[in-house]
């Protein structure tokens, strides 16, 4: 479902109010979202988590790929954007939480997602927060699961390589700016403390 002018304006207002939290002036293009989602097996996923729903540019495409009995948990820290997604996307499989993605493990009730989808602006998040979210996503994934990451710079690659044994990469030029897409599998064991 394409975003109307009011949804684009909401995204821009959120960016202007919290640029480090939103990370982009415009929502991600449908082509970039589709290219990223093609990198995981969403149709067989039982539980999918989205980190940073924004205005729902990923949310609706994820739902279109999920089976009828899958569950979809979406995190969005901005109350206005979370409310917008809740009102625009009516689907019993979807639960939208107005919560930071750093609290992911607290909302899984022991379940482990098959796919985690993220377009969070990791490189602009406050120091350490992006790394914490990535580490919690890695340890939360189900065996054989995939973390999908969309970024507007390649600077996240080193962190992904540190956390995952398998990192596939793509670039989508049909987005403004071009999007760097990652599919991460096989989380590495956490270092002993």
What does this structure look like?
The protein is an alpha/beta fold and 193 residues long. The protein is 32% helix and 22% strand. It has seven helices and seven strands. The longest helix is centred in the N-terminal third of the chain and has 13 residues, at 5-17. 43% of the residues are buried.
Short description:
This protein is an alpha/beta fold and 193 residues long. Helix content is 32%, strand content 22%.
Topology:
Blueprint lengths: L4 H13 L1 H4 L7 H8 L9 E5 L7 H7 L5 E5 L3 H10 L5 E4 L17 E4 L10 H12 L5 E6 L5 H7 E9 L6 E9 L6
Parallel strand pairs: 1-2, 1-4, 2-3, 4-5
Antiparallel strand pairs: 5-7, 6-7
- What fold name goes in the CATH topology slot? Rossmann fold
Query: How much of the sequence is in beta strands?
Result: 15-25%
The H/E string reads HHHEHEHEEHEHEE
Principal-axes shape call = globular
The protein's oligomeric status is single chain
- Name the structural class: alpha/beta
The CATH superfamily name is: Vaccinia Virus protein VP39
Radius of gyration: 15 Å
CATH architectural grouping: 3-Layer(aba) Sandwich
Number of domains: 1
Unreliable runs, pLDDT <50, ≥5 residues?
14-25
Number of helices: 7
Average pLDDT level: 89
Biggest sheet record? 7 strands, mixed
Distance between the termini: 46 Å
Keywords:
single chain; 193 residues; alpha/beta; Rossmann fold; 7-stranded mixed β-sheet
């Amino acid at each position: 479902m394409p975003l109307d002018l009011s949804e684009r304006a909401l995204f821009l207002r959120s960016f202007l109010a919290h640029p480090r939290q939103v990370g982009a002036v415009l929502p991600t293009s449908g082509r970039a979202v589709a290219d990223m989602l093609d990198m995981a097996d969403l149709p067989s996923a039982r539980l999918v988590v989205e980190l940073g729903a924004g205005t729902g540019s990923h949310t609706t495409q994820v739902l279109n790929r999920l089976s009828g009995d899958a569950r979809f948990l979406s995190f969005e820290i901005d109350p206005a954007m979370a409310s917008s997604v809740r009102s625009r996307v009516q689907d019993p499989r979807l639960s939208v939480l107005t919560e930071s993605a750093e609290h992911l493990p607290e909302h899984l009730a022991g379940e482990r997602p098959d796919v985690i989808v993220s377009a969070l602006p990791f490189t602009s998040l406050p120091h350490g927060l992006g790394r914490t979210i990535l580490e919690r996503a890695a340890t939360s994934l189900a065996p054989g699961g995939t973390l999908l990451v969309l970024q507007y710079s390649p600077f996240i690659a080193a962190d992904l390589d540190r956390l995952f044994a398998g990192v596939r990469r793509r670039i989508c030029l049909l987005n403004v700016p071009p999007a760097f897409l990652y599919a991460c599998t096989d989380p590495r064991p956490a270092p002993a403390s």
